[in-house]
Design a protein that fits this description.
The complex is a heterodimer of chains A (490) and B (434).
Chain A: H1 2-13, E1 29-31, H2 38-47, H3 52-66, E2 90-92, H4 104-113, H5 119-126, E3 134-140, E4 143-147, H6 150-155, E5 159-162, H7 163-169, H8 171-177, H9 188-196, E6 201-205, E7 214-220, E8 227-228, E9 231-236, E10 241-249, E11 256-259, E12 262-267, E13 272-279, E14 291-302, E15 308-315, E16 320-323, E17 326-329, E18 335-344, E19 349-352, E20 355-358, E21 364-373, E22 378-387, E23 395-404, E24 410-419, E25 425-434, H10 437-445, H11 450-461, H12 463-466, H13 471-485
Parallel strand pairs in A: 3-7, 6-9, 7-10, 8-11, 9-12, 10-13, 11-14, 12-14, 13-15, 14-16, 14-17, 15-18, 16-19, 17-20, 18-21, 19-22, 20-22, 21-23, 22-24, 23-25
Antiparallel strand pairs in A: 1-2, 3-4, 5-6
Chain B: H1 11-25, H2 32-48, H3 63-66, E1 89-95, E2 98-99, E3 110-114, H4 115-120, H5 139-146, E4 151-156, E5 165-171, E6 179-188, E7 193-201, E8 209-218, E9 223-231, E10 237-246, E11 251-258, E12 263-272, E13 278-287, E14 292-301, E15 307-316, E16 321-330, E17 338-347, E18 353-362, E19 368-376, H6 380-388, H7 393-409, H8 415-433
Classes of the chains: A alpha/beta (490), B alpha/beta (434).
Chain lengths: 490, 434
């Protein structure tokens, strides 16, 4: 109950149309020339001091991208994007050597966001707490600025660093896995990312290791007209376990910023990866001006037998979301999960869902999606579940519920189910409703105010998904839900 | 994806355009409006051609790849042996789209007209043809409109309760394969009631193309119980379109039984134009061999307080492929909408495939909408239970399949029609069991 009250307090405390993370940080930064060409790709690669094969890979992706068409099948509409009008690379001028050398402005930014970058602060912050600590990799515009707890992770054999660093320190690992889940020419945005990605996180958990702490990345777009293209690669070797969280924010700008990330997960035999996202990019103002275009390709490959990949996402931000975290269930007995809360308000457009591709024997997947639309937004769940000829014993359960608040928003469900095997069992159910008058009335007559009642019902509606989040994030997510819905309740 | 990206025309597309041009070059048939409709349809087809997988509404049926060639329009042919009665009904037989002798002893309130006669006489009901179609381009519908000329018009006067069921049997006949484009218009005026049966049959050995469009208009307070039995020949291609517009406080129930054709596609456009109406769209597809059957529904809740129920059962044996796409659209003013959609598939073979895509598109908040979809094999425990009670495996299987498909048949209100459908189900199962 206390969390619900907190939600309500949050709603009250905030004026309509306030994005808490909308500040801009003044940092001198170095940018690649505006626009996209082979030279931009070479510039980025040179800046990163990448090996020759990496540049060749990028250029190949760029050439393929030129021949691709922007996808139009999603239920989102936006003006034609001029890909020459963006900066594809921006980095703070002073390259930090250690956390202590980070530009104080950036540190301040992350403090404002509530991300402790200094280990000692982090330690102080949680003293006396349950002892759970979170290692953070912070990505500012195009580059990773700091990664914490590296030494301690190294003791366990876990590699957690920025992907540029990984390219220098562990090129063989990167070369082996990069693009093996999302190939360079996978789709329009993934191909663009392959050509110009600037940074991101890299995680490798060796055989049999259970990663001793939660890993986290925080992404922030700061510069004007900048596209952020990060690439995350997580590998859990045989029997390993890792839980990873990512969060994202951006300043309030009138123009639309572009974010096209790629996330690749590889789970080998008996490994488990839990990937949680709290996405809170700037959604645009109340008239739908500005906001981030979030075109993300996320895919996990359950490559080994008995492996498991679980996606949990809380999507509250972005003007446009185009995102389908997927699982390829290749190994026998592998398992994929997708838990999602997608909230849209104002003029936001969300087209999100998942893909569960059953290839191995006795694979199972579970999809729980909760969409809440308010204001003038449109919220679409789009998901694919398929079982191939050899996927005997495949099992899927899908549940997607939508809640509409107000009569000017839209909620849509587009599931695709392709069963090519008789022993596959697929179940799908979806409902759409508004907050029932009976439920509201019941809460009101028990003495709750209208706002408290709505918050209680909405929190109940998304509870299945919130329970899947790591504890530290669950509280934040609950607050975020309330803030996202502010102005729409009552 | 993009019109100007369209690859070169296929042979089938080109011959269809040539046939359309030949049709349009003939002396004008009917009013200026009809000719404009044909010209527009021809232009739309020339621009868009046959749908591919990239066209979302045809995602699982690549008609462009499937239609290798097109045979010429089917001409007059001898009336084949009449199919056995489905239920006791007033029968109208169309051979290659042309109505044969129309029954003369019609009950009061019922009018039957051949479309060709209606066009020659510039009948006022023709105004209703293609006046309320889907907004998006539909290749099957456009082709049918382009060739508009053969078919029938059925009119039920206000308040008339037609006692007999009316059966429209559409048959293909000919020594060579051919194409049929049939248009049927059914107008049921305010407060009238009609039981309608549509049947599609043809010889097993002819690879003919049957493109059939039926448009139904229900006036306020009207009731129509509609059964559609598609039992085309083994090698046929069946492209069916059914567009229904419902007035206020109407009751419309459709049952679709899909048994035949190598490739079949049925698109149902159901639109609520008046509030407090009910629409039930249900069906069973029994598919064996290498059949491909696609049922695609668009249920458009354009006004408030309407109820729709969709339930489809697909049984797949051998290498058959079933497709169900259903879309419930709830427009901004359609408050208090109640929509339920369910598609269930039973896969009897590892080579069979079922593709389900039930969609909800909702723009109003005070609604109750749900959809579900399942796919799976027969339940081993239930099968075991029946066998432990002494039923042979084949029989137990048949019983379970019958029960599975029967759930949809139950909703057919008319007992006679229900029994006739069940008899078809049983016959299919018996044939399969050998």
């Amino acid at each position: 109950m206390s969390a619900v009250q907190e939600t309500v307090a949050q709603v009250r405390a905030i004026d309509v149309d306030q994005y808490k993370y909308g500040f801009v940080t003044d940092i001198e930064s170095e940018k690649a020339p505006k626009g996209l060409s082979e030279d931009t790709v070479r510039y980025i690669s040179a800046k990163k001091g990448e090996p020759e094969w990496m540049l060749a890979w990028r250029l190949d992706a760029y050439r393929r991208w030129l021949g691709l068409q922007e996808p139009t099948w999603a239920r989102v509409s936006y003006p034609q994007i001029d890909f020459q009008d963006y900066y594809y690379f921006a980095q703070p001028k002073r390259a930090p050597q250690s956390v202590d050398e980070i530009d104080p402005e950036i540190l301040k930014t992350y403090e404002k966001l509530g991300i402790p970058l200094r280990e000692r602060d982090a330690l102080l912050g949680i003293e006396g707490a349950s002892g759970s600590r979170v290692a953070v990799d912070a990505v500012f515009d195009s580059v990773s600025v700091a990664t914490t707890f590296k030494a301690e992770l190294a003791k366990a054999g876990v590699i957690f660093c920025s992907i540029s660093e990984a390219l220098r320190e562990h090129p063989d690992l990167v070369r082996q896995y990069l693009g093996s889940v999302v190939p360079a020419s996978d789709n329009f945005y993934a191909t663009l990312n392959a050509a110009v990605f600037s940074d991101g996180s890299f995680v490798y958990v060796p055989k049999g290791v259970r990663c001793p702490m939660e890993l986290s990345t925080y992404f922030r777009i700061n510069e004007r007209n900048t596209g952020q293209f990060e690439r995350t690669l997580i590998i859990a070797d045989e029997g390993a376990y890792v839980s990873y969280l990512e969060g994202c924010t951006a300043p309030q700008r009138d123009e639309n910023q572009l974010h096209a990330a790629v996330v690749e997960l590889v789970a080998l035999k008996d490994a488990e990866i839990k990937y949680s996202t709290v996405q809170n990019w700037y959604p645009g103002d109340k008239d739908g001006k500005g906001g981030i275009y979030n075109f993300v390709t996320k895919r996990g490959d359950c490559r080994g037998d008995n492996s498991k990949i679980s996606w949990t996402q809380v999507e509250t931000g972005s003007a446009i979301t185009w995102k389908y975290p997927s699982c390829i269930l290749r190994g026998d007995n592998s398992r994929g999960e997708f838990y999602s809360i997608a909230i849209s308000n104002g003029h936001q457009q969300v087209d999100s869902g998942t893909k569960m591709v059953h290839l191995g024997k006795n694979t199972s997947s579970r999809i729980i999606s909760k969409g809440i639309s308010a204001g003038r937004s449109n919220n679409t769940y789009r998901g694919l579940v398929s079982a191939h000829r050899k996927a005997t014993g495949a099992r899927n359960f899908t549940n997607c519920d939508s809640l509409l608040i107000g009569d000017t928003c839209g909620a849509h469900t587009v599931p695709y189910m392709e069963a090519k095997n008789a022993s596959a069992v697929f179940e799908h159910e979806a409902t759409t409703s508004k907050i029932s008058d009976d439920q509201l009335f019941y809460c009101l007559q028990r003495g709750l105010s209208q706002e408290e009642a709505v918050a209680l019902i909405v929190n109940g509606f998304v509870r299945d998904v919130l329970q899947q989040l790591p504890m530290e994030f669950a509280v934040e997510a609950q607050k975020l839900i309330a803030v996202s819905l502010e102005g729409s309740v009552g | 994806m993009n019109a100007n990206l369209r690859p070169v025309r296929t042979a089938a597309e080109q011959s269809l355009i040539d046939m359309l041009d030949a049709r349009l070059a003939a002396p004008p048939l009917g009013s200026a409006r009809l000719n404009d409709l044909r010209q527009e349809a021809r232009a739309a087809f020339a621009d868009n051609g046959l749908p591919t997988r990239r066209v979302e509404d045809w995602h699982y049926t690549d008609l462009r790849a499937a239609l290798r060639g097109v045979s010429p329009l089917a001409g007059d042919a001898a009336e084949p042996a009449a199919p056995s009665a489905f239920v006791e009904a007033l029968r109208v037989t169309l051979v290659n789209g042309r109505p044969q002798t129309l029954p003369s002893d019609l009950p009061p309130g019922l009018t039957l007209l051949s479309l060709a006669d209606a066009i020659a006489a510039d009948h006022p009901l023709l105004e209703l043809i293609a006046s309320d179609g889907p907004a998006q381009y539909d290749a099957a519908l456009a082709l049918n409109t382009g060739f508009l000329g053969e078919g029938i018009i059925l009119h039920v006067a206000a308040g008339a309760q037609i006692p007999q069921a009316v059966e429209i049997a559409q048959l293909f006949s000919g020594a060579e394969p051919g194409c049929i484009f049939t248009r049927i218009l059914v107008v049921v005026e305010d407060g009238a009631a009609l039981r309608l049966i549509e049947r599609f049959e043809g010889p097993a050995e002819r690879a003919y193309l049957d493109n059939a469009v039926i448009e139904l208009r229900l006036g306020d307070g009207a009731r129509v119980d509609h059964v559609r039995v598609q039992a085309e020949g083994e090698a046929a291609t069946h492209l069916g379109t059914l567009a229904t517009t419902l007035g206020r406080e109407t009751h419309y129930d459709l049952f679709v039984l899909t048994l035949g054709a190598a490739l079949s596609r049925l698109t149902v456009y159901g639109r609520f134009a008046g509030h407090d109406s009910h629409m039930g769209v249900r069906g069973a597809s029994l598919l064996a061999g290498a059949r491909h059957a696609d049922v695609t529904l668009f249920v458009d809740h354009a006004v408030a307080r309407c109820e729709s129920r969709e339930l489809f059962k697909t049984v797949l044996a051998d290498r058959a492929r079933g497709v169900f796409q259903g879309k419930i659209i709830v427009r901004p003013d359609a408050q208090k909408t109640d929509g339920r959609m369910m598609s269930q598939a039973l896969l009897l073979s590892d080579d069979a495939e079922m593709d389900n895509k039930p969609e909800l598109e909702i723009f109003a908040d005070d609604v109750q909408c749900g959809h579900g979809a399942t796919a799976g094999a027969l339940d081993d425990t239930t099968l075991f239970y029946l066998m432990s009670r002494g039923l042979p495996e084949k029989e137990a299987e048949m019983l379970l399949i019958q029960a599975f498909a029967g759930e949809a048949v139950e909703f057919v209100a008319d007992a006679e029609m229900r029994e006739a459908i069940t008899a078809r189900l049983t016959a299919w199962l018996a044939l399969r069991a050998g």
